[in-house]
């Protein structure tokens, strides 16, 4: 009964918020921001949003098949305010809007003005860039250009960590601000749609392994932290810890780091020093919290007190370090290395589960959340469809368990140069049955097909 009452109250708050949103959109079309009419409607909208957000970290407003959706729950209500707002954001090509609990009143007018603009009057396709430019940091938008923006965010992060490592090599000061900005871009993209960033994290580059691995761990750890329920500030800290986790490898001899084979005991002793070396590099740096330095130090420690460096008596790695450990291991397992062939995503997860059950290597609670986040068929998994086509799982849509895939081999067994992306949620209009379904996983590495090439197209 209480759930129904809460649902009804939330729906009423949502409709009321959309009423004030409509008022703000209309008044800002007619008057400047300082006009009393605008001030009044912005005040009303801000108060309504505060009530709607309540004690949550954020709310997500989306539109699916012409139906407004609040935090994943469709709002089936014939209401002029909902209909008006739904039509407006669809016309703008906006798929969803995230509003954080950190929202400030002064952020609303620039957001409304941007939404009011005609597409031809917007100077760039990246709406989040424009919001950031106006110091609107508590509202995020996912539109039709999001995937391309996310790719730019990914490669900007690669550039940031590459520059950081170069600075360390040259003895220059580390630009903490650039690293934090890169992580913030990644975290914001994860909050909008973590599936797109997780897909990008499967694009491996062996030649730039340290760079891509650092960014991939940042992505996976941030996504897992968000799924577990850490707040935005904590997620950014974990993301920065993930980005910098292997920074100590800069002090590891290349003969050890790039050895094309298994390390001997002495070489392993040298390799195991990199968490301590990384800690020494960043501890005490202005702008780097001590907790982040601890994540770097502890990312190879294990809850079972194994791993390295050895913890002090009665001490265990902090929760943030345990999250980075999961991300680090998963990305390492699914990457081609001089001494190992990559595991498929499913094989990597099975290995990590076995390690945890047998020796307690990972936090089982966090690992279960990680498995649920990745889905039955993790991004990067090759599958056979009931049409006999081969495809690669490329992403998941919001709140859905069935993936979007890229078909790379026809039913006749021919490689498709430009993989075709299809949504396995799509159904036959007449029968209501899925147009395509997954029947099994396949090993494409045995066919000498590189999944990272398919995901990159």
Automatic annotation (TrEMBL):
Residues 210-333 form the HD domain. It comes from the Bacteria. InterPro entries: HD/PDEase_dom, HD_domain, HD_GYP_dom, HDIG_dom. Pfam families: HD_5. Residues 188-386 form the HD-GYP domain. Coiled coil: none annotated. This is HD domain-containing protein.
């Amino acid at each position: 009964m209480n759930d129904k009452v809460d649902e009804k109250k939330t729906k009423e708050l949502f409709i009321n918020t959309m009423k004030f949103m409509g008022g703000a959109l209309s008044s800002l079309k007619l008057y400047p921001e300082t006009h009393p009419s605008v001030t009044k409607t912005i005040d009303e909208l801000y108060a309504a949003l505060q009530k709607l957000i309540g004690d949550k970290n954020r709310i997500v407003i989306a539109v699916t098949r012409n139906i407004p959706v609040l935090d994943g729950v469709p709002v089936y209500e014939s209401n002029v305010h909902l209909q008006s707002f739904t039509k407006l954001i669809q016309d703008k090509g906006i798929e969803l809007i995230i509003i954080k609990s950190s929202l400030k009143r002064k952020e609303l007018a620039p957001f409304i003005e941007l939404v009011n603009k005609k597409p031809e009057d917007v100077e760039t396709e990246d709406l989040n860039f424009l919001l950031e430019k106006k110091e609107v940091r508590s509202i995020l938008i996912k539109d039709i250009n999001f995937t391309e923006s996310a790719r730019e965010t990914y490669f900007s992060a690669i550039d940031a960590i590459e520059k950081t490592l170069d600075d360390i090599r040259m003895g220059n000061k580390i630009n903490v601000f650039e690293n934090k900005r890169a992580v913030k871009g990644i975290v914001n993209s994860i909050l909008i749609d973590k599936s797109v960033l997780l897909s990008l994290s499967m694009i491996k580059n062996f030649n730039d392994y340290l760079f891509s691995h650092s960014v991939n761990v940042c992505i996976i750890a941030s996504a897992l932290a968000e799924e577990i329920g850490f707040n935005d500030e904590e997620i950014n800290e974990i993301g920065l810890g993930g980005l910098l986790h292997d920074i100590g490898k800069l002090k590891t001899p290349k003969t050890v780091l790039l050895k094309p084979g298994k390390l001997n005991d002495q070489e392993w002793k040298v390799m195991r020093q990199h968490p301590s070396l990384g800690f020494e590099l960043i501890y005490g740096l202005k702008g780097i919290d001590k907790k982040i330095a601890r994540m770097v130090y502890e990312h190879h420690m294990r809850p079972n007190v194994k791993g390295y460096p050895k913890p002090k008596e009665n001490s265990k790695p902090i929760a943030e370090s345990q999250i980075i450990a999961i991300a680090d291991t998963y990305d390492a397992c699914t990457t081609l290395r001089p001494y190992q062939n990559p595991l498929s995503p499913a094989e990597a997860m099975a290995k990590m589960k076995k390690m945890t059950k047998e020796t307690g290597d990972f936090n089982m609670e966090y690992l279960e959340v990680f498995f649920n986040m990745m889905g039955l068929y993790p991004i990067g998994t090759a599958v056979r469809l009931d049409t006999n086509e081969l495809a690669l799982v490329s992403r998941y849509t919001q709140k859905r368990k069935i993936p979007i895939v890229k078909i790379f081999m026809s039913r006749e067994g021919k490689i498709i140069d430009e993989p075709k992306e299809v949504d396995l949620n799509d159904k036959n209009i007449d029968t209501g049955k899925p147009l395509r379904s997954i029947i099994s996983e396949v090993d494409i590495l045995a066919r000498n097909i590189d999944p990272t090439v398919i995901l990159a197209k």
